[in-house]
Amino acid sequence: MFDVQNLSSGYGDVQVLSDLTFGIGNEVLAVLGANGAGKTTLLKTLAKVLPLRAGALEWDGQQVTHTPAHELSNRGIAYVPQEGNVFPNLSVAENLSLGALVGTRPKDERLDEVYTLFPRLAERKDQRAGSLSGGEGQMLAVGRALMQDPKLLLLDEPSAGLSPLYVDTLFQTIAEAREKRGLAIILAEQNAKKTMEIADRVLVLSLGRMHLLEEAKSLSMKRLMQAYHI
Ligand SMILES: Nc1ncnc2c1ncn2[C@@H]1O[C@H](COP(=O)(O)OP(=O)(O)O)[C@@H](O)[C@H]1O
Ligand SMILES: [Mg+2]
Protein backbone atom coordinates (compact mmCIF):
# COMPACT_ATOMS: atom_id res chain seq x y z
CA MET A 1 0.00 0.00 0.00
CA PHE A 2 2.78 2.42 0.95
CA ASP A 3 6.24 1.74 -0.43
CA VAL A 4 9.45 3.42 0.59
CA GLN A 5 12.47 2.92 -1.69
CA ASN A 6 16.02 3.92 -0.73
CA LEU A 7 14.85 6.94 1.22
CA SER A 8 17.43 9.43 2.48
CA SER A 9 16.57 12.62 4.30
CA GLY A 10 17.93 15.27 6.65
CA TYR A 11 18.24 18.94 7.47
CA GLY A 12 20.64 21.38 5.79
CA ASP A 13 24.08 19.81 5.72
CA VAL A 14 23.07 17.05 8.11
CA GLN A 15 21.98 13.75 6.61
CA VAL A 16 19.85 11.90 9.17
CA LEU A 17 18.26 8.96 7.34
CA SER A 18 20.18 6.78 4.91
CA ASP A 19 18.84 4.38 2.34
CA LEU A 20 15.68 3.08 4.02
CA THR A 21 13.60 0.57 2.07
CA PHE A 22 10.39 -0.94 3.43
CA GLY A 23 6.69 -1.23 2.72
CA ILE A 24 3.56 -1.15 4.80
CA GLY A 25 0.34 -3.04 4.16
CA ASN A 26 -2.80 -3.15 6.25
CA GLU A 27 -0.98 -3.38 9.58
CA VAL A 28 0.56 -1.53 12.50
CA LEU A 29 4.22 -0.97 11.70
CA ALA A 30 6.13 0.21 14.75
CA VAL A 31 9.20 2.39 14.23
CA LEU A 32 11.35 2.01 17.32
CA GLY A 33 14.69 3.47 18.24
CA ALA A 34 16.51 5.51 20.86
CA ASN A 35 16.17 9.24 21.18
CA GLY A 36 17.78 10.82 18.11
CA ALA A 37 17.57 7.65 16.00
CA GLY A 38 15.57 9.44 13.30
CA LYS A 39 11.97 8.40 13.99
CA THR A 40 10.55 11.92 13.78
CA THR A 41 12.62 12.68 10.69
CA LEU A 42 11.23 9.55 9.03
CA LEU A 43 7.61 10.43 9.75
CA LYS A 44 8.13 14.03 8.65
CA THR A 45 9.63 12.78 5.40
CA LEU A 46 6.79 10.30 4.79
CA ALA A 47 4.25 13.08 5.48
CA LYS A 48 6.20 15.31 3.05
CA VAL A 49 6.73 17.97 5.69
CA LEU A 50 10.41 17.41 4.94
CA PRO A 51 11.62 16.76 1.37
CA LEU A 52 13.36 13.54 0.42
CA ARG A 53 17.06 13.79 -0.39
CA ALA A 54 16.94 10.61 -2.39
CA GLY A 55 14.62 7.71 -2.96
CA ALA A 56 10.97 7.29 -3.88
CA LEU A 57 7.57 6.95 -2.24
CA GLU A 58 4.63 5.10 -3.69
CA TRP A 59 1.08 5.18 -2.29
CA ASP A 60 -1.73 3.01 -3.60
CA GLY A 61 0.31 2.19 -6.69
CA GLN A 62 1.12 5.82 -7.53
CA GLN A 63 4.33 7.80 -7.19
CA VAL A 64 4.03 10.42 -4.46
CA THR A 65 7.71 11.27 -4.06
CA HIS A 66 7.10 14.94 -4.83
CA THR A 67 3.45 15.20 -3.85
CA PRO A 68 2.85 18.07 -1.41
CA ALA A 69 1.71 17.34 2.16
CA HIS A 70 -1.85 18.67 1.78
CA GLU A 71 -2.39 16.53 -1.30
CA LEU A 72 -1.31 13.44 0.65
CA SER A 73 -3.88 14.18 3.37
CA ASN A 74 -6.56 14.48 0.68
CA ARG A 75 -5.47 11.06 -0.53
CA GLY A 76 -5.88 9.38 2.83
CA ILE A 77 -2.67 9.87 4.79
CA ALA A 78 -3.05 11.60 8.16
CA TYR A 79 -0.03 12.76 10.15
CA VAL A 80 0.12 13.43 13.88
CA PRO A 81 3.40 15.23 14.66
CA GLN A 82 5.22 14.66 17.94
CA GLU A 83 4.79 18.28 18.99
CA GLY A 84 2.52 21.18 18.18
CA ASN A 85 -0.22 18.83 17.06
CA VAL A 86 -3.24 20.83 18.27
CA PHE A 87 -4.30 24.47 17.97
CA PRO A 88 -4.12 25.62 21.61
CA ASN A 89 -6.46 28.61 21.21
CA LEU A 90 -9.23 26.64 19.56
CA SER A 91 -11.67 24.44 21.45
CA VAL A 92 -11.64 20.65 21.32
CA ALA A 93 -14.63 20.66 18.94
CA GLU A 94 -13.03 23.28 16.69
CA ASN A 95 -9.78 21.31 16.51
CA LEU A 96 -11.69 18.16 15.55
CA SER A 97 -13.75 20.03 12.97
CA LEU A 98 -10.57 21.08 11.17
CA GLY A 99 -9.93 17.38 10.50
CA ALA A 100 -13.28 17.20 8.70
CA LEU A 101 -12.05 19.60 6.01
CA VAL A 102 -10.60 16.48 4.40
CA GLY A 103 -13.04 13.86 3.13
CA THR A 104 -16.72 13.86 2.31
CA ARG A 105 -18.66 12.08 5.08
CA PRO A 106 -20.86 14.37 7.19
CA LYS A 107 -18.87 16.08 9.95
CA ASP A 108 -21.32 15.22 12.73
CA GLU A 109 -21.13 11.53 11.92
CA ARG A 110 -17.35 11.64 12.20
CA LEU A 111 -17.46 13.71 15.38
CA ASP A 112 -19.79 11.19 17.00
CA GLU A 113 -17.38 8.38 16.17
CA VAL A 114 -14.39 10.22 17.60
CA TYR A 115 -16.30 11.15 20.75
CA THR A 116 -17.31 7.50 21.15
CA LEU A 117 -13.67 6.44 20.88
CA PHE A 118 -12.53 9.22 23.24
CA PRO A 119 -15.32 9.97 25.75
CA ARG A 120 -12.95 12.35 27.52
CA LEU A 121 -12.96 14.61 24.48
CA ALA A 122 -16.75 14.60 24.44
CA GLU A 123 -16.76 15.81 28.05
CA ARG A 124 -14.40 18.63 27.10
CA LYS A 125 -15.87 19.71 23.76
CA ASP A 126 -15.85 23.40 24.54
CA GLN A 127 -12.59 23.49 26.48
CA ARG A 128 -9.62 25.31 24.97
CA ALA A 129 -7.17 22.71 23.62
CA GLY A 130 -4.26 24.52 25.30
CA SER A 131 -5.75 23.82 28.72
CA LEU A 132 -5.99 20.04 28.23
CA SER A 133 -3.66 17.65 30.07
CA GLY A 134 -0.85 16.06 28.04
CA GLY A 135 -2.82 12.85 27.62
CA GLU A 136 -5.99 14.60 26.56
CA GLY A 137 -4.00 16.70 24.10
CA GLN A 138 -2.62 13.53 22.48
CA MET A 139 -6.13 12.08 22.29
CA LEU A 140 -7.25 15.25 20.57
CA ALA A 141 -4.39 15.10 18.08
CA VAL A 142 -5.20 11.48 17.24
CA GLY A 143 -8.91 12.30 17.14
CA ARG A 144 -8.34 15.14 14.70
CA ALA A 145 -6.33 12.82 12.43
CA LEU A 146 -9.13 10.22 12.55
CA MET A 147 -11.61 12.94 11.55
CA GLN A 148 -9.85 12.88 8.15
CA ASP A 149 -11.04 9.29 7.58
CA PRO A 150 -7.48 8.27 6.73
CA LYS A 151 -6.34 4.97 5.26
CA LEU A 152 -2.88 5.43 6.74
CA LEU A 153 -2.11 7.15 10.02
CA LEU A 154 1.41 8.40 10.79
CA LEU A 155 1.70 8.73 14.58
CA ASP A 156 4.81 10.24 16.12
CA GLU A 157 5.40 9.20 19.74
CA PRO A 158 1.87 9.61 21.02
CA SER A 159 2.98 8.25 24.43
CA ALA A 160 5.74 10.84 24.99
CA GLY A 161 5.42 12.37 28.45
CA LEU A 162 2.24 10.48 29.35
CA SER A 163 1.60 8.54 32.56
CA PRO A 164 1.28 4.74 32.13
CA LEU A 165 -2.49 4.85 32.63
CA TYR A 166 -2.93 7.32 29.78
CA VAL A 167 -0.59 5.29 27.57
CA ASP A 168 -2.75 2.20 28.15
CA THR A 169 -5.95 4.05 27.27
CA LEU A 170 -4.44 5.71 24.23
CA PHE A 171 -2.93 2.51 22.83
CA GLN A 172 -6.15 0.58 23.41
CA THR A 173 -8.05 3.25 21.53
CA ILE A 174 -5.55 3.24 18.69
CA ALA A 175 -5.91 -0.55 18.42
CA GLU A 176 -9.71 -0.22 18.52
CA ALA A 177 -9.74 2.47 15.83
CA ARG A 178 -7.55 0.30 13.67
CA GLU A 179 -9.83 -2.71 14.08
CA LYS A 180 -13.01 -0.76 13.37
CA ARG A 181 -11.65 1.10 10.36
CA GLY A 182 -9.13 -1.34 8.89
CA LEU A 183 -6.62 1.47 9.11
CA ALA A 184 -2.86 1.08 8.52
CA ILE A 185 -0.64 2.77 11.09
CA ILE A 186 3.02 3.71 11.24
CA LEU A 187 3.68 4.26 14.93
CA ALA A 188 6.98 5.83 15.99
CA GLU A 189 7.70 5.16 19.65
CA GLN A 190 10.34 4.99 22.34
CA ASN A 191 8.07 2.90 24.53
CA ALA A 192 9.04 -0.48 23.03
CA LYS A 193 7.22 -2.74 25.46
CA LYS A 194 3.84 -1.11 25.07
CA THR A 195 4.25 -0.71 21.32
CA MET A 196 5.04 -4.41 20.83
CA GLU A 197 1.57 -5.18 22.21
CA ILE A 198 -0.18 -3.54 19.26
CA ALA A 199 2.42 -3.79 16.48
CA ASP A 200 2.29 -6.34 13.66
CA ARG A 201 5.83 -5.60 12.51
CA VAL A 202 8.71 -3.70 14.00
CA LEU A 203 11.34 -1.56 12.30
CA VAL A 204 14.26 -0.47 14.45
CA LEU A 205 16.20 2.64 13.52
CA SER A 206 19.61 3.40 14.89
CA LEU A 207 21.56 6.46 13.78
CA GLY A 208 19.23 6.84 10.82
CA ARG A 209 19.68 3.34 9.46
CA MET A 210 17.38 0.35 9.56
CA HIS A 211 18.74 -2.32 11.86
CA LEU A 212 15.82 -4.68 11.99
CA LEU A 213 12.47 -5.26 10.28
CA GLU A 214 10.55 -8.21 11.64
CA GLU A 215 7.19 -9.61 12.67
CA ALA A 216 6.46 -8.48 16.23
CA LYS A 217 5.32 -12.00 17.17
CA SER A 218 8.65 -13.61 16.44
CA LEU A 219 10.81 -10.86 17.91
CA SER A 220 12.31 -11.34 21.36
CA MET A 221 12.93 -8.37 23.65
CA LYS A 222 16.58 -9.39 23.69
CA ARG A 223 17.00 -9.07 19.93
CA LEU A 224 15.05 -5.86 19.98
CA MET A 225 17.29 -4.33 22.60
CA GLN A 226 20.39 -5.47 20.71
CA ALA A 227 19.13 -3.67 17.62
CA TYR A 228 18.61 -0.55 19.71
CA HIS A 229 22.16 -0.43 20.98
CA ILE A 230 24.03 -0.78 17.70
N1 LIG B 1 15.50 20.64 12.56
C1 LIG B 1 16.63 19.94 12.66
N2 LIG B 1 17.81 20.42 12.20
C2 LIG B 1 18.95 19.69 12.27
N3 LIG B 1 19.04 18.47 12.82
C3 LIG B 1 17.90 17.93 13.32
C4 LIG B 1 16.65 18.63 13.27
N4 LIG B 1 15.70 17.84 13.84
C5 LIG B 1 16.35 16.71 14.22
N5 LIG B 1 17.65 16.77 13.91
C6 LIG B 1 18.66 15.71 14.16
O1 LIG B 1 18.24 14.54 13.51
C7 LIG B 1 18.55 13.39 14.28
C8 LIG B 1 17.30 12.56 14.44
O2 LIG B 1 16.32 13.28 15.18
P1 LIG B 1 14.82 12.81 15.28
O3 LIG B 1 14.35 12.42 13.94
O4 LIG B 1 14.08 13.88 16.01
O5 LIG B 1 14.96 11.50 16.19
P2 LIG B 1 13.91 10.74 17.12
O6 LIG B 1 12.55 11.19 16.75
O7 LIG B 1 14.17 9.30 16.86
O8 LIG B 1 14.24 11.11 18.53
C9 LIG B 1 19.13 13.90 15.59
O9 LIG B 1 20.52 13.79 15.51
C10 LIG B 1 18.70 15.33 15.62
O10 LIG B 1 19.62 16.12 16.32
MG1 LIG C 1 10.97 11.99 17.80
UniProtKB/TrEMBL annotation:
* Classification via SUPFAM superfamilies: P-loop containing nucleoside triphosphate hydrolases
Q: Does the keyword Translocase apply?
A: no
Entry's Gene Ontology molecular function annotations: ATP binding
Q: Where is the signal peptide?
A: none
InterPro entries hit by this protein: AAA+_ATPase, ABC_transporter-like_ATP-bd, BCAA_Transport_ATP-bd_LivF, P-loop_NTPase
Question: ABC transporter domain: from which residue to which, for each copy?
Answer: 2-230
Pfam families per UniProt: ABC_tran
Note the superkingdom of the native organism.
Bacteria
This protein's UniProt keywords: Amino-acid transport, ATP-binding, Nucleotide-binding, Plasmid, Transport
List the PANTHER family hit by this protein, alphabetically.
HIGH-AFFINITY BRANCHED-CHAIN AMINO ACID TRANSPORT ATP-BINDING PROTEIN LIVF
Family statement drawn from the similarity comment of this UniProt entry: Belongs to the ABC transporter superfamily.
Name this protein carries in UniProt: ABC transporter ATP-binding protein
Q: Which organism is it from?
A: Yoonia rhodophyticola
